[in-house]
Amino acid sequence: MSKQMQIVNVDFVKQMNGALVYRLIDQHGPISRIQVSEMSGLAAASVTKITRNLLRFGLIKEVAQQQSTGGRRAISIVAERNKFVNLLIRLGRTTVTVAAMDLATNVLFKQKYQLKTEQSLQQLEFYLIELIEQSLSAVQRSDCKVMACGITVPGFVDQKNNTIRFMPQLNLQKPWKLAEQIQQKIQIPVFIGHDVRALALAEFYFGKTQATSDSLLLRIHRGVAAGIILNKQLFSGSKNNLGEIGHTQVDPLGKPCKCGNFGCLETIVSNQAIEDSVRQLLQQGHQSQWLSEQNCDLDTICLAVNNGDPLMVELFQKIGRYIGQVLAVCINVLNPEKIILSGKITQAQKVLFPAIERALQAMALQDFVNDTTLEASELEHDDIIGAFALIKRALWSGELLVQLLED
Ligand SMILES: [Zn+2]
Fold first, then answer.
1. pTM of this prediction?
2. In sequence order, what are the beta bridge partners of 341?
3. How far apart are alpha carbons 106 and 208 in whole angstroms?
4. Section 136-162 average pLDDT
5. What is the distance in A from the centroid of ligand 1 to the CA of 226?
6. Distance 224 CA to ligand 1 centre (A)
7. What is the CB neighbour count within 10 angstroms for residue 122?
8. Taking the C-alpha atoms of 200, 201, 203 and 204 in order, what is their torsion angle to the nearest 10 degrees?
9. CA of 332 to the centre of ligand 1 (A)
10. Is the CB of residue 186 less than 8 Å from the CB of residue 149?
11. Does residue 377 contact residue 220 with C-beta atoms inside 8 Å?
């Protein structure tokens, strides 16, 4: 027993050291082996051994740097970003997006498909695998390797078992082993996660929360949910799923919500809810110079807000107040350094953000509010970048690296 434990520990330490070295090279490259040794605290001989292994698999490469003081050209190493491709899938309620992205976040292709409304789980699974196989043959070139597949869904994911426990449009009788099915077919590691939680991770790796330790991303789209980063880790807890702040009741006399309650934040501020409210206001006879019942999609609504349309400014001040009311509780609980708002609604941030900030000032602890900044996400490819973040996390933690090096 103790011998077995020892073996496991040695493997684990090797995995962690390998991941640490790769991460330092990825984050700080071009970097010399000596610098990696200094930053990691690992012996120079260990760094040499690990980098030899990473070089052998093409995960890093040597580049000649400027002349060092002794006149000899120092060799530095960088992560190889263009020769590895990742397959990314965003399975939505009515559509599926399939994309390929290299490690430098260049999108090689992206395609969105409409899902059939009447199909069994098996049919859907079959269709997804077919799409993945088609995409694989499109990206497989001799000079690049397909590394992993990342999938995000707007449902509850069991991270430990890599299964989906709940999806809004599907009636799942038991956990859906989609990742396992795909992995068996295409023989590459598959990582699955909740779309908003994965987006918070992407914001942390590539976006505006990179330099922070604690942050919250509020995604407003079809639904409203949050992803939380605490101590530089995506916060998940033992039950895996959290951050469903869109289902906080803000208006007890409000509209019914899909969760069964009434007047949840989502029933007021989701993209659809805003468009419905505007249409209703116009039907009741409210006047807008910019909008009509036929022309009131969210982009046009945001344009009207930015042009100072009094009706829309009034509406967005109300929306901001409700968002602020829920975020105030989040601030008091988490005391984050940054709150990032993601979604089309941020196009109207000129009016929306001051309204949210006024609510935060009035409803949350002053010290905490003063320490928290509110910003709009500027992440590109917000539909698929979360799936890539899941792969990046697995690469940096050693989970994926160990699978690649074993191959
Ligand atoms: Zn609800």
1. 0.93
2. 218, 376
3. 19
4. 87
5. 14
6. 9
7. 9
8. 120
9. 22
10. yes
11. no
